[in-house]
């Protein structure tokens, strides 16, 4: 006697009821799998992108999470700026004197090493990269920085992949062709805004719909996709960024005649065909954030403590802040969604119970005949449990296939927006527990009808 075949035929006899019960369970399982997959994608996206090639982000005092989201992910609103001379505190005496000679202006005590230079010696592996934010190109952030951002930083799971160009090259601090106004765009920016090397764009000030700057940047490079937030950013030469209207702060040390000359030069630059050829003085510059990689890994915590003890700036660790974000916001949301979907599965399990239980009155005579032909009570009970299990397995598989089919259909959008590559077979470890739990639920749901079948009175059922 083939118990599986008998159980399958019993399910076929109640075709519509079995189909509706299976669909109900598939929807519940599909929701559970989608929640687990989406949480895995979000977690993977944040954790992958928090591995950025630098240890610390330094910005004005405030929320370290906001600083991280704004600087690393280009989310949230920019924090207050830091004076440029604070940025120079991470360099040795030689570099401080070089920048003062190159850009002019005023710098307190240029003939001494910066007070943080001990931790960030560039000759021993340290990295100090400034970031200026506040402008947009369409919906995307414009990032004013130096060529070192794309030359020296790495990306990827092991932070060992250099930034590569789909076309063009990195921008230069100053070029004979474009002066200070060169830019590189991320892969998503290039595709969405439909731009290429050789095009020119004018950033908008402070908001995607803000006033457009008169000065434009020439695009000299388009990055290959990296799976990081930098795919959604436009990188411009920081020297050109400073020369745009509204980006220079009033000098506290220069005389009125010198400031007037700088202002006149920038105004003239706004005329058609004119490009500024003199950089902004040091004391009129600010930076939004500073990306730091100390010369020794052990210096990171020490440097963070030293900076945070001061009154002017704060230092945040991207990985640490993102971990806190996951614990405080993302994980609780996942638990709530899992609770809702678990309730959905329980309701589907109750549906299995009701469906099979309601059919028992119609099947008493069939069960009695089986018993009269020699079937044991346990055999009849196993047939009902197998029927419940078949519905559970079929519903679970359909739900899993439906959920992963939806993920596969949206894989392009998911990878484009999060940088996480997914396909139909992308799974999370938590999904391994879904089918066993569904089978357990089905066993519980099928136990009551199976018990009814076990207790069926053969003589009474045949006489009815």
Automatic annotation (TrEMBL):
Q: Residues in domain ABC3 transporter permease C-terminal?
A: 339-456
Provide the transmembrane region boundaries: 20-42, 335-358, 379-403, 433-454
Membrane-protein topology: Multi-pass membrane protein
Residue limits of the MacB-like periplasmic core domain?
18-241
| CC per GO annotation | plasma membrane
| Entry's localization field | Cell membrane
An example of a Pfam family matching this protein is: FtsX
Tell me which UniProt keywords the record has, alphabetically: Cell membrane, Membrane, Transmembrane, Transmembrane helix
Reply yes or no: does the keyword GTP-binding apply: no
Q: What is this protein's record name?
A: ABC transporter permease YtrF
**Organism, per UniProt?**
Rosistilla oblonga
Give the gene symbol: ytrF
